[in-house]
Amino acid sequence: MTGEKIQKRKGIVHINHEYCKRCGICVNFCPVKNLEIRQQKLMELNRCIACKMCQRYCPDIAIEIEEVDEKTVGTGKSGHRNGG
Amino acid sequence: MDKESGFKRYLKLDLLPTPWCPGCGNGIVLKTICQAFDELDLPKDGTVVISGIGCAGRSAGFFNLDSVHTAHGRAIPVAEGIKYANDALHVVVVSGDGDLLGIGANHLLHAIRRKTNITVVCYANEIYAMTGGQASPITPHNTKTLTTPDGNPDYPTDVQFLFKHHNGYFARTSAYHLNHMKKCITESLEFNGFSFVEVRTMCIVNYGRRLGYKNSNEMLMHYKELYKINDYAEELAQDEIGIIKSSS
């Protein structure tokens, strides 16, 4: 992530880790490479543009996107969020 | 619930995760069927889902509706019986290609002939996936599977030709083309007569792996490259997806 241009964040990815099977379809569909599988766990990298491609193609209904306003969330918040 | 998650009311969310392998396309089809139900706002007490045996047959249990998990290949006769007993119900059959076109092909033939007003959604993964990857009736020619290690010597069944002389609704779609799939399923639910939707889905563990695909995403991208949409045509080529709707 270092050295890359910080994009405006427009969504929060809620990942249900109980449903997720880490197939990686969402990782490949994400146009801004916001999702990543690290240590057998799907992680979000805080640059979601709320295109909802991952939500649409997730076969396990494990992803839900919450559309947010940039001002209310801010940038650079660390860590992913659990949800679902 | 908002527009995008409204389909969840048709699912038993407490039974998830689904039993399918990571990367299986069945979940995408299950979700799209529920989205089509949601778009038409089908009543929960007026819709019945029937499934046969196989990977796809497991999906009936996940619908938050009345559902029947029938014997192998016998999903269509049960569905027809339910429809004849109570005509007001929306009857949907969800099953795989091995179940519908292999073991239950005879029932499919006669359901088309009788023009029973039911909808069949076929999860066509081109393989008998649950038993380990044997060649199914729609496995393409020269494809390597567990039972055909030197390539499939037979040619696949093309269901569209069964509809040629019996008015019905046939659609072929793929797991990549979500909007097209939803349109096909929605139209087939609205169609007055026998309707069949063949959804090409990916099976990575027992099929794609032997063909050299690294992951299920590669198979999805293969569908994107292979299939061209050709709606309301007279006949679909092998590399086309689309809808064949009889005029009357």
Automatic annotation (TrEMBL), chain A:
Residues 11-40, 43-68 form the 4Fe-4S ferredoxin-type domain. InterPro entries: 4Fe4S_Fe-S-bd, 4Fe4S_Fe_S_CS, Fe-S_Ferredoxin. PROSITE patterns: 4FE4S_FER_1, 4FE4S_FER_2. The keyword Magnesium does not apply. Pfam families: Fer4_10. Gene3D superfamilies: 3.30.70.20, 3.30.70.3270. Keywords: 4Fe-4S, Iron, Iron-sulfur, Metal-binding. SUPFAM superfamilies: 4Fe-4S ferredoxins. GO terms for molecular function: 4 iron, 4 sulfur cluster binding; metal ion binding. This is Putative 2-oxoglutarate oxidoreductase, delta subunit. It comes from Candidatus Jettenia ecosi.
Automatic annotation (TrEMBL), chain B:
GO terms for molecular function: oxidoreductase activity, acting on the aldehyde or oxo group of donors, iron-sulfur protein as acceptor; thiamine pyrophosphate binding. InterPro entries: 2-oxoacid:Fd_oxidoreductase, THDP-binding, TPP_enzyme_TPP-bd. Residues 59-199 form the Thiamine pyrophosphate enzyme TPP-binding domain. Coiled coil: none annotated. Gene3D superfamilies: 3.40.50.970. CDD domains: TPP_OGFOR. GO terms for biological process: cellular respiration; small molecule metabolic process. Keywords: Oxidoreductase. This is 2-oxoglutarate oxidoreductase, beta subunit.
